[in-house]
Design a protein that fits this description.
Elements: H1 2-20, H2 25-28, H3 44-55, H4 64-84, H5 104-115, E1 117-121, E2 132-136, H6 140-149
Antiparallel strand pairs: 1-2
Amino acid sequence: MKSIKVQLLLKFTFIFTVLSLSCHKQGLAQFPSEVPSSNKVHSVSHAKNEIRKRLNPPSFCDTKGCIAPLSIQICAIVGNLNTRVNGKIIGKPLRSKRPLKITSRELALMKKIWSQCKTVKAETVFIGVPGEVTIYSPSCELRNQILKELDLQERMYQCNY
């Protein structure tokens, strides 16, 4: 039941993102849209690249309406990767049919990212949307550490979102 809610919320955030960016057709080709489901996370590197895309969006994506869906997707990607690494990130034991190997350094990074995922009322992010969402809302200090570990430059937004 929870996964259906998550899937609906992710589809909503995708639709919302596309609608909010429709006037920026040129940038849409570079804009991350769908979150790879757990069975489509091919490797830890794949998940890291998907997270990088969302932490380094096109320059026109500098508003809450654009950044919020990407922040939700970051947590979803880590959650999906967690399934593939048998629950090592979040700490709930899971059994994946085809578990991925994760190094201690990658595990520490993913735990750090997940520690910055907060569950909040959806209406605090999207007006009129019921329920809850899990959104990446890093402290300034951890945001900078995470960006550095992903080889990304600091951005002025996404700090204490």
